[in-house]
Give the backbone structure.
Amino acid sequence: MPGAMRERFAEVTTDLLGSHERLSVVTADLSARLFDEARAAHPDRVINLGIREQLLIGVAGGLALAGMRPIAHSFAPFLIERPFEQIKLDLNHQGVGAILVSAGASYDIAGGGRTHQSPGDVALLSTLPGWTIHVPGHPDEAEAQLRAAVRGDDPVYLRLSNQSNARPLAPVGRPGFHVLRRGGAATVLAVGPLADSVLAATEGLDVTVLYAATVRPFDTATLRAVLADQPEANVVLAEPYLAGTSAAEVAEALVDRPHRLLSLGVARDEVRGYGTPRQHAIAHGLGSAGMRLRITRFLAA
Amino acid sequence: MTTATRPVRAPYRFADLPALMARMTGDEKHALAASSTLDVLWVLYDRVLRVTPEPAEDRDRFYLSKGHGPMAYYAVLAAKGFLDPDELDTFGSFRSRLGHHPDRMLVPGVEISSGSLGHGLPLAVGTALGLRARDLDEPRVWVLLGDGELDEGSNHEAIAYAARAGLDRLRVVVIDNHSATQGWPGGLEARFAVEGWATARVDGRDHAALAAAMNAPESGRPTVVVADVDEPFDHH
């Protein structure tokens, strides 16, 4: 089952192909069947390359050089990690953009094991300049981000997940961080689909909770503005990918202010187990109880 | 240093290229990687490509995938009016636009930035698809590869896909100086032929033969022209 965000991605893309004549969608077999209807309507712009992920990004770069706006889609490890040099050279170094849309996130495909998991994707893309990185927490957010991305020509990563918050939390058209709850002792940045768990984890705690469905560019201004109201700069990152991915951004944002940082996220070590995404979240300390425990200890330290 | 008089004057001929290259290498004998591409580049720009210094949307595209040894490329671009020949003197210096691998964001007429092997052909496949989607039917997309470069697996993803997608506007020229470490049994063109490409092998120093092969009529399939050059090589 493709999950609600990936289904929405296919529906919205099919719709956008009708109104954006330069838009093209490129797949490497995965999800290709979701675009059968679109391919029948736009055979020259809906392209399935077979299981060829280096070509997936190369073709996206070549399409952009020809004046098209390409969307390239696969599961995160095959879209970002396997063809990473193509992303660096066939997009960034050529000075062209593309919309890379991944599915699978960190451990949506829990039963698939390490080969199908990509907790390091956001960290990898963060080594390259110019990327807008969206981590939507709800299909509505993903749709708004996709529709906005199609209008530009810059590099955009849209990281879809089967995990979702109960309702959209990011106002449409405002990509920065948003205050979900106000407190005085710390600021917790909840990213994408982790937000509901973070709200549960911090229930009754005296903390501000910020929500981010877009992590690059990193909304330094909002983070600093929120911390300006707090006597101590205690920051908690709650990211649904590799722990500490945005730690450098926090350090840069607070270069002039002494601060403490707790980075919650997916551990670097492999979890050599299968099961469900929820079990993986708990194993990485990203269940609400695990996060509450670590945040409370951090506040008490 | 004193101001030197220009060693050659426009319009440039093939025989003028060594002098242009010498402005970059300081050596009339120049580097081997550049030498192996000089004939092919000249024939492309002199007799094949529909390109001018003012880029038109329906121009032919030329992607130099084998970005090593770009002196021949810069010399040809200078000879054809894309670059001021005086700029060749800056080759490789910090503020120069002319690096040891070409950068499309810096150098007029350069369509892709290359250097890392195995990127030009996949990019060209995408461009051929994009031009087709835009109903730009005239441009051909040319890629120059080396036989050693074909070791890179990314090329084989592109070779396999291109013919199946019917990209008849895609044209590849491979400089075959027999440098691939494990070689290509049966000839490198066999790897293209089995995937459905039209193939030709010509003497890479024979300008008339190169031009004839490169200007062969559309065959309904992507085309590879192997330019055979017999020369020693090095690995950097």
Notes: Chain B has a mean pLDDT of 91. The two ends of chain B are 31 Å apart (CA to CA).
